[in-house]
Amino acid sequence: MRTPKTLATALLSLSAAALLALSAAGAATAAPAPGNAPADPSGVTSHTVVETGTAGYWTEERMRNAIPGDVLAEKAMKRNNNSKAAQNRAVDAGAPSTVEAAAPSLQAKPAQPIQPMANASESPVKHIGKVFFTLGGANYVCSGNSISSGNKSTVSTAGHCINEGPGAFATKWTFVPAYLNGAAPYGQWTAKSLYAPTQWSSAGNMAYDTGFAVMSTLNGRNLSDVVGASGARFNAARGLSYKAFGYPAGAPFNGESLKSCTGTATNDPNNSSFMTQGIPCNMTGGSSGGPWFIGSSSTGYQNSVNSYGYGSNSTSMYGPYWGSVIQQTYNSAAAA
Fold first, then answer.
1. Number of domains in the chain
2. Taking residues 115-121, what's their average pLDDT?
3. What are the DSSP E strand ranges found in the chain?
């Protein structure tokens, strides 16, 4: 069995020069102003999943032995830091936009006071689950969330849990909502198509580390009809308070149950060009792609995903700003 690597431990393997470059970027105490970096390719990249996996591929043993997807984020960050073509520019922002939840029971409740917490144990949430996929012949695990969409079958996750950034798209992509100790109480849902911002799929731009999967029906039913779906918000204000969820698998966690973090978002002080925000959190590898909800519960509007952390003693989790480009990617997946 491969010992899972944490998000923090994996990122330690960045070269000293790369880390110095990150530090030199300076602290971000306010929303960074637009820069003059080379323009990235725009648009949405989609991929039809040809190899969905035979029934029963994701056995309890394979699910437990899957490699946490943070190692893929680490590779993307290395390529991003070493490639001038992958230099980040200001995240495109537009008018605020909201997508309502799929069921009244999932509508946002009145906001409760946020108590910062690095990790907390949670009971399973129907629309949040684990994501399993293969890349390069290896099995990986991330986290994901059923998000409201016209096709009632869309799951959000991190870009590096969809595509290598840049590189191949995943195969055998499967969502297991409300996973708990190897159990799949609502079944295993296989993806038929994957969507990522072109800035991610062509350059591994960490500012756009978000992806969406469109799921096939299961027993003749659509995903959100079975587990519900979260509402979403794009182009929101920065510095909001969030509750983030995920299935961390690296020590001291084992990936078998849902965890959460809460706190007010602040800009990444190590690399302002990523335009990301962080909250107090020590979730490890396997939590990648887990949803961030505005407010203090899983009933809020989703507004980001778990993307990356720094160092062996990282106390923050960073997520991409959901602006116009990620909204365009969501729109493409939701209408598929």
1. 1
2. 71
3. 44-48, 67-68, 97-99, 117-121, 128-135, 138-147, 154-157, 171-177, 189-197, 211-215, 232-234, 241-246, 259-264, 266-267, 277-280, 291-294, 302-305, 316-319
